[in-house]
Amino acid sequence: MMDFATILGLVLGTASVLYGILSGGEISSFIDAGSVAVTVGGGLAATILSFPLPDTLNAIRALPLVFKQPKFDPFKTIRLLVELSQKARREGLLALESAQDEIEDDYLKKALQLVVDGIEADMVKTTMQFEIDSMVVRHSTVQAYYKTLALQFPAWGMIGTLMGLVNLLRSMDDPSNIGPAMSLAIITTFYGSILANLICNPIVTKLQGYSAEEIRMREMIMEGILSIQAGENPRLMEHKLKTFLSPEQKLQYESMIMKEREREREAAGFESVSQ
């Protein structure tokens, strides 16, 4: 599903910059191929130099995620874990093996397989935590890549400005060239600031938010799986898992449960009348 907040932010940011430019000048005054080459090319080169090639490829692959909403559904996950807990209490842990084919989440499926295989709870928790830690490292590397870009673009914008000032000083003998030369010298700083503050820093913040949500989901799954393995009461486990929800999400979840129970009562009443 498309994340319209990203599109809206880009449109508003671009519109604000264009309005600021057009209100006091012309767009052509802010376009210079050499300045773009120094700022973008230099920033990209320095960042690529700072990371191994696989990290650069991972950062490119992660870019489309900024435009998509993650498919995290805590309500569905809690209900699934409660159903698995009820099934385990009725039929035993081995009965959960048949439920794995219906599970889409790979992390939950792996955790459930560990429980079915009879792995001890401490080892299950350690293995699941390793999965989370590895994911955090991967996400942090991608975030660090865009943080580096956010630092490098303004830095290379300043380098471009210094280069422009050098050319400006060389043309001091012709006063008519001072204004245009000064303008070109400052444009590279403008490019660097735009790239850092409108593109790179928002990407970092967006990816950090998605990563935090995925970590929360996986920790909730881990807690649920360990509760199932320990044979805890499904209602107690459900109450424990709801602590991972925000206050607003808790109200939404309770409302969803009440509607489900009402539908179940209506269905049961309809069946009794039919009989």
What report would you give on this structure?
The protein is 79% helix and 0% strand. By secondary structure, the chain is mainly α. Among the domains are: 4-69 and 153-200, no CATH class; 245-275.
Features:
275 residues; mainly alpha; 9 helices; 79% helix; elongated
Number of helices: 9
| CA-based gyration radius | 28 Å
Distance between the termini: 44 Å
The share of residues in extended strands comes to: under 5%
Order of helices and strands: HHHHHHHHH
| Sheet of most strands | none
Mean pLDDT: 88
Oligomeric assembly: single chain
Category by helix and strand content:
mainly alpha
Q: What is the number of beta strands?
A: 0
Low-confidence stretches: none
- Please estimate the helix content: over 70%
Shape: elongated
Q: What's the gist of this structure?
A:
The chain is mostly helical. The chain has helices at residues 4-22, 33-50, 53-62, 74-91, 106-116, 121-170, 178-230, 234-242, 247-274.
What's the structural blueprint in terms of helices and strands?
Layout: H1 4-22, H2 33-50, H3 53-62, H4 74-91, H5 106-116, H6 121-170, H7 178-230, H8 234-242, H9 247-274
Helix pairs in contact: 2-6, 2-7, 3-6, 4-7, 4-8, 5-6, 5-7, 6-7, 7-8
